[in-house]
Amino acid sequence: MRGDELTRSRILKANHLSCTILASDGRSFNTFDSEFQAIVDLAGAILQTRAPNTLRSDSNTLDVREPLHVVAARCSRVSTRNQAMELLNRFSAR
User: Fold this and answer.
1) Is the pTM higher than 0.70?
2) Comparing C-alpha atoms, which of 59, 50, 61 is closest to residue 91?
3) Which domain holds residue 48?
4) Is the separation of the CB atoms in 75 and 84 below 8 Å?
5) Of residues 93, 35, 94, the one with CA closest to residue 68
């Protein structure tokens, strides 16, 4: 895959994971620790491969920020939640 295709695949996977989490019954988000961490890992990989001027997307484009917000709001593991918030800050800073 080319770099831009890989980035789009990562974005799609992160959104798929967050939708799966949100579509669950919501009684226990603790069962999604690996999915939360996968979203953070995918977002980190995207951040490293994107040029600084391409980190801001328009509002009609699927992006990785929304899945990171799901992690920040629903993950009970503090380290993963903190990683998500740090990535959100880094995306916003660029």
Assistant:
1) yes
2) 50
3) 3-19+30-93
4) yes
5) 35
